[in-house]
Amino acid sequence: QEDIFKNVISHAKEYGYIFPSSEIYDGLSAVYDYGQNGAELKKNIRDYWWKAMVQMHENIVGIDASIFMHPTTWKASGHVDAFNDPLIDNKDSKKRYRADVLIEDYAEKLNIKAQKEIEKAKKRFGEAFNEEEFVTTNPRVVGYLSKRAEILKRMGHSLETENLADVKALIEELEIADPDTGSKSWTEVRQFNLMFGTKLGAEAAHAMDLYLRPETAQGIFVNFSNVQKTGRMKIPFGIAQTGKAFRNEIVARQFIFRMREFEQMEMQFFVRPGEEMKWYEYWKETRLKWHMSLGLDKENYRFHDHDKLAHYANAAADIEFNFPFGFKELEGIHSRTDFDLKAHEEHSGKKLQFFDTELNQNYVPYVVETSIGLDRMFLAVFSSSLKEETLEDGSVRTVLSLPAVLAPTKAAVLPLVKKDGLPEVAREIIEDLKWDFNVAYDEKDAVGRRYRRQDALGTPFCITVDHQTLEDKTVTIRHRDSMKQDRVAIADLRNIINEEVSV
Ligand code: ATP
């Protein structure tokens, strides 16, 4: 698994998807830059989300709020006082970790052991295998899974009651070691505020202390009335937003999974008090369907319903994804009650209410939110698309089988040879297609090698111009995943590509 992850990171770099930030100065930990292909993939994921959430829902609109917000925002949201993460130092290495993440990693290892037993049994029993029965009766699997559940419950409870000594005791009891050095000597667990502080204004005496927003949601809450009134929105309705968020994360070991500067795609759905559970279930289903629509392997997803709830929530679930380092949170669906709007009413003295004409009543709406990390989604798509295939002739090809709708380049146009007027025809095809799709031109090396390069880049189609093209205006179109080639008319290319890449 470690090797697969390393492979993902090096492939992302080699093919212009992701670079370490400021690499010529040896990089900056947990900060990354998206390269020429990464920026396109990221934009396509964002657009795919925006289309599904905003364009397809008459009652959801999108905004773009600032990263800087009035500092009182973070008092109202609880980020200044309550939103702290438990932090622990290793005495030997002086390295710092998030205690809950260390424990979660340990619990995930138990889960992996259980999954391995299940896989083994599947192979052994074949058709006759009953997974449901196996996981409830096999003593090893039951042991692993119940220990995992017990650990997560104990950690959750201690964090909830702020009993940090218990979190430390759990780390010691489980004999968790420093993931980098193997040392087991830890300091006390402390609370740590993850927000980045900065100053607004040049004059030191009058400068205002600000924070970079640690989530995009608050920009939506403070604009609730602006949007509701100007958009004449009726409950239930949603406000969506994508944008950067910043957290001074302690553990930064998992590439773009946990970054200090990242991007969120969030939607806050405002509902009648009392109807929130209906909408919570609706959004859980709807968001899972969105993931499924991309056609990645279904087995990669699972729900994790939270036992431990944040102080503002009355229900919460994660959609977890099977990343190269195991199942981890990809998206959160939270029923946030009226906590945020009420808190902003209190701190601002302004009413944040809705007059419901059907009920003839004013109220502070309840909120159900869906919150997904764009970078985590990128990692999910990228890592599960990267494959090594052994072909019939025994050779191995690397293919990045990205969903066509998300691929940075939709087609590469390749003249078979660099002469006889073939490059000119290839250029004409590009001139025509580029109004609708990102298309690339490549004339270097033998055509087989060019196919492999486009496979590794994730380009769904290769269009080859050969001598027959000059006679009958046809080309071959090669499909990345099946490697199948069809002879088609140049005039049909747009439709053929469109069929695959449009939503
Ligand atoms: P975690 O427990 O993994 O730190 P979280 O529960 O704090 O995540 P939320 O506050 O619910 O996360 O944020 C919503 C989404 O934003 C997450 O599901 C995740 O996809 C993304 N996200 C959160 N923190 C980061 C980060 N440091 N880097 C990249 N994405 C992040």
From TrEMBL:
Domain Aminoacyl-transfer RNA synthetases class-II family profile, first and last residues per copy: 174-415
CDD domains in UniProt: GlyRS-like_core (cd00774), GlyRS_anticodon (cd00858)
Binding site for ATP: 247-249, 257-262, 329-330, 373-376
Main EC class the enzyme belongs to: ligase
Catalysed conversion reaction: tRNA(Gly) + glycine + ATP = glycyl-tRNA(Gly) + AMP + diphosphate
Compartment list: Cytoplasm
SUPFAM superfamilies from the UniProt entry: Class II aaRS ABD-related, Class II aaRS and biotin synthetases
Subunit and partners: Homodimer.
Name of the protein: Glycine--tRNA ligase
Annotated source species: Flavobacterium arcticum
Gene name of the encoded protein: glyQS
